[in-house]
Design a protein that fits this description.
By secondary structure, the protein is mainly alpha-helical. The chain has a domain at about 5-90. Helix content is about 55%, strand content about 10%. The chain is built from six helices and three strands. It has helices at about 5-20, 25-35, 40-45, 65-70, 75-90, 115-124, and strands at about 25, 50-55, 60-65. A three-stranded antiparallel β-sheet has the order 1-3-2, with helices on both faces. The chain is flat and about 60 Å long.
Length: about 120
């Protein structure tokens, strides 16, 4: 195995670790959790109908809620209970709650040059 191949595999493994830490799971795991056939998920990922991340030549990662949304599968009672507990603890936002309105930002007047002007002058 060449150094380039090792580096590519290592990069893919790091990417997969970061993605799984952020809610992405392999297609096989998503198929098991949602009862959607693996071949159906793979076709949907390849065609772009299912949002997915390709981490290796034949390895895709997806988010389970995206699979459920696309294929109309509802969450199990256990998953709903876990989600309610996370909402109560403030770890995640309640999906049913209306989003908070953000306050408009008022720009502050500043004397002197803008940052972009200073950067342009420094580059000359």
């Amino acid at each position: 195995m060449t150094d380039a191949m090792r580096a590519e595999i290592e990069t893919a493994q790091k990417a997969q670790h970061l993605l799984t830490a952020n809610g992405f799971v392999p297609l096989a795991e998503a198929a098991r959790l949602t009862d959607v056939p693996l071949s159906t998920l793979a076709d949907a990922a390849r065609s772009g109908r299912l949002p997915a991340v390709k981490v290796q030549s034949r390895r895709w990662l997806v988010r389970v809620p995206a699979v459920r949304l696309l294929f109309g599968k509802s969450a199990t009672a256990d998953e709903d209970a876990v989600e309610r507990q996370l909402v109560r603890r403030g770890i995640i936002a309640d999906r049913g709650a209306a989003p908070k309105r953000l306050e408009r930002i008022k720009p502050e007047k500043v004397d002197g040059k803008s940052v972009s002007q200073i950067v342009l002058e420094d580059r000359r």
